[in-house]
Write a structure and sequence with these properties.
The chain is of the alpha/beta class. 45% of the residues lie in helices and 14% in strands. A hairpin with a 7-residue loop joins β7 and β8.
Length: 398
């Protein structure tokens, strides 16, 4: 049982959002965005009345188990108008190592690839989808064209955007007004200087903020987030590579390794001043939220089984009272399930499953007690397995 904060009744603290199936992503997105907007309105009212002074009292948190779930929540916020209401919702994602999974990092990688392979239509097209060029490209213009014709269409689009940005950029007198002009500049100027000049001209943080239309506050948060983390990437780069001899190939490999191998570097939040007068919305794993508090906690993913012991590595070893239990997992194309398990008599699957249940119970308790005023949990009618967070809450009568 979880004690409620203050003297509030359970129904005032605990909400259940009922849905049919967790696999209906459209319905899940709609329910989640509606819940976020409703709770943000409540927090906003308390802020206006002077009853929410501390940062945690101004924060709505979506708690998840995995980084993939956090990324899904982030996308729901970015495309919030699709699920009802006006304007996107900027959701700060804090999973502990999200810098090289962030938009600034992915956009920079696409920019480097396009500069390195400026005649490759795929690389140039990928660049056109980033925040450096926020206008939507008409894909119909590419149908029926060969690679050379596609490249001409894409470069024409980039040139229009660059020329428009040069009209108001600080680097207008220095920067070329065409895509190939920037490519040519790399032949006689340092890579880092060209990159910084191009970024200063195109101001990708403005393009990123534009995707959060409808709310100036949300756009300001997004702009600050993008700008600060782009600077952080350059700081990490300067600390890892000798920038005096930096090449596009070196930079491409650096970013590729960081992104594809899942290197964990914590991204910077939007500066406190950006949301000091408004509501902050974050998404975090439950483990990262331990020890923190938030006005509202929303948990949309409680349907996954939590007692099944799936192999986390090729060899698992447990010790108990001087006895050693082991389990070996390896792939086998001829096996019925594509895998083979070998284990000795000291590896107790039932015991390990029960220990997993106890650990998941503790994690659920941590998640619920992060909420100061409101806790919302999504329940799915098609989920009947009791060995889930949803099942645990239903059995507990919460």
């Amino acid at each position: 049982q979880v004690e409620l904060n203050g003297d509030r009744k359970k129904e005032e603290y605990f909400r259940v959002g009922e849905l049919e199936s967790p696999w209906d992503k459209e319905a899940l997105g709609k329910a989640l965005i509606q819940e976020i907007r409703a709770r943000c309105r409540e927090v906003g009212e308390r802020i206006a009345e002077g009853r929410a002074q501390r940062e945690e009292e101004r924060t709505v948190a979506i708690l998840v188990r995995t980084n993939l779930e956090a990324q899904e929540v982030y996308e729901y916020g970015k495309h919030a108008p699709k699920y009802g209401g006006s304007g996107s919702i900027f959701i700060e994602v804090d999973t502990g190592g999200d810098l090289f999974f962030s938009d600034p990092s992915i956009d920079l990688y696409k920019l480097v690839l396009a500069l390195k392979y400026p005649l490759n239509p795929d690389c140039v097209f990928n660049l056109s989808t980033t925040s450096y060029f926020p206008g939507r490209f008409d894909l119909g213009r590419l149908y029926g064209k060969n690679d050379h014709e596609k490249l001409e269409c894409l470069v024409e689009e980039l040139n229009d955007s660059i020329e428009a940005c040069c009209g108001h950029a600080r680097f207008a007198e220095e920067g070329p007004s065409s895509w190939m002009g920037w490519v040519e500049r790399l032949k006689y100027q340092p890579v880092l200087k060209v990159l910084r000049a191009f970024i200063g001209t195109m101001r990708p943080w403005d393009g990123f903020a534009a995707s959060y239309g409808g709310s100036r506050e949300e756009a300001d948060k997004a702009r600050m987030y993008y700008k600060r983390n782009l600077e952080l990437i350059f700081e990490k780069l300067a600390g890892s590579i000798n920038t005096d001899y930096l090449t596009l190939s070196t930079l491409e490999q650096y970013l590729k390794i960081k992104i594809t191998t899942g290197q964990e570097e914590k991204a910077r939040e939007a500066m406190a001043a950006a949301h000091s007068s408004g509501v902050r919305v974050i998404c975090s794993t439950v483990h990262k939220a331990k020890g923190l508090e938030f006005d509202t906690v929303i948990m949309p993913y409680g349907y996954r089984r939590i007692n099944n012991i799936s192999p986390s590595s090729e060899v698992e070893v447990i010790t108990d009272g001087g006895r050693v239990g082991y389990r070996v997992f390896y792939a086998d194309k001829e096996a019925a399930e594509g895998a083979v398990l070998l284990q000795n008599s000291y590896y107790d699957v039932r015991r390990e499953s029960m220990e997993r249940m106890r650990e998941e119970t503790r994690i659920l308790y941590v998640a619920m007690t992060r909420a100061m005023r409101n806790f919302t949990f999504f329940s799915y009618r098609s989920v009947t397995n009791p060995n889930t967070w949803q099942g645990m809450l239903e059995q507990g009568g919460t």
